[in-house]
Batch of 2 targets.
Target 1
Amino acid sequence: MTIEHSDDELDRLLRTHYHAAVDGVTAPEHLLRQVLTTTEPQRGRMARWTPVLAFALAGASFLIILASSRVVEVLLSL
Amino acid sequence: MLLDFEALMNSCADEIYAYLVARMGNRFDADDVFQSTFFKVYHFLPSFRGDSSPTTWVMRIAMNEACSFRQRKGQELPLLTPGDAMPQPGPDGAGYDPVQAETVQDVAAGMRHLPGDLRDVLYFCYYKEMSYEKIAELIGKPVGTVKSRLFRAKEELKAFLEAHRDHRTQ
């Protein structure tokens, strides 16, 4: 015997499956922690360079200001 | 576009995980693909240009990872594992509907029988109730392709369920 599945019945079956198997599924905490732990060393390595970069940037800014003030001084003396 | 990885993962983890459980059919594979998805997200996050929403971008990566996982592995674990997503009887048998359990099992088996591209369209259309246009944008195909895939998915699923039921009634 063959039972024809109408679209309505398929809708119902899919919804039953959805509510039983998929609805309300959340990512397990341990999985999120695992991903974060694995990517942590890489993020840590980047973080280690942040103060060095900030210091270099501050130094470069200081030199630029120094150079421009010297240029102004030279221009004024002309 | 500067996005914080942890904030991005927390904002879409549940949506991606639910998709992967439905797509892979079991939580073991879903766990594996979830991790590889977010490793890729982490790796490519600096090059994310913001052409789509971050969640759509992550979902696309998850779809690709699910697809390549199946190709890599060749076969998947049989059906949903008990205790993961299947309705189970309580200690006193309360809250357990054997007919519903059988239905869920049949549909799960039917879904697993479908090729990945058809399963995706069925999932986004029926489970996420997305419009054809939104699905087309997500999978990067025209709306016509979405409609034809949905039609094929429904036909194949119906055929599977009918064959399954015939087999059971014999």
Target 2
Amino acid sequence: MSILNLHNSLNTYLILAAILFGMGVYGLVTRRTLVGMLISSELILVASSINFMAFNRFTAPDPTVGQIFTLFIMAIAAAEAAIGLSITIAVYRNYKTVDTEDLVDLKG
Amino acid sequence: MNPSDTTTVIGFFTGDGFAGYADAVAGIVFLIMLATTLIGGIIACSAERLVRAVSGLALCFIGVAAIYYYLNSPFVAMMQMLIYIGAVCVTIAFAIMLAAPEESKKNGPSGPLSGPLGLITAGLVTMGMAGLAVNTTFSVLPKENMGEVKLIGVELLTSYSMVFELVSIVLLIAIIGSLVIARHGRSK
């Protein structure tokens, strides 16, 4: 298969989504701050959206369903970002830090 | 267009007249957008400063929007630009400005999974998912329609109206809840 015809292959999108998911996991386990973890979780969400859209185009009989599902994922991601922002600000106001290693009140 | 013709998936860029030329241009643009997505993702997950990470995230989202366009979904690509770049990235940038995480005394990652172990973890997850995706044969069903924007609107307000309303309520509760959480403890 030609390299210029990559956009007509399902595997391209699935591998791209897997790579983005791996980047999100890497950021999630290595980031020290809450905001960095929030950024990495957005990468994971977008990887799942790409998977939905790829199967939606190539295999699903009704291509509207996947698009609607991706729109719902976007809405949930926006809600998650808003909640994450407010939790980050509340944590910063109480602890004067957003470093995950300093937030050990529940560690026992 | 013949909807039952599923062996050749119909794309925006496969015209009839100058098909070869348009295909080549589409392929090159797709490769550029693929590189944009991957570079943005790498910046987003590994940059030292969080402002650069957010910029990389926005770059990654631009590439993903282009990829949605290649997946026959211009409406979702537009919503990706609006919601992810316009709302989510700006929200995270506000979080960085308000919580000032750059003032951390210790720099760089730490912890048991940082460094090579985290890289190995992410690599194993990626390899596992990619291998699973490549080695599976998916059954292709015949297309009922082409997924036009009009049909998305009709489906949203008929079959998925309940989910639509629930997502609206979730967003409303998220907005109110985030206001309450961020407001709490602010006495001045």
